[in-house]
Amino acid sequence: MKFKGIEKIHEGKFITRYNIEYETASGKTKTYEMISRRKDITQFDQLHNKGADAVVIIMHDKSGEKILLSREFRMAPGEWVYNFPAGLIDAGETVEEAAARELREETGLTLTQISEVWKESYSAVGFSDEKNVVLVGTAEGKILPSDSELEEIQARWYTKEEVKRLLVENIFAARTQAYCLLWSKR
Question: What is the rounded average pLDDT for all residues in the chain?
Answer without folding.
Answer: 96
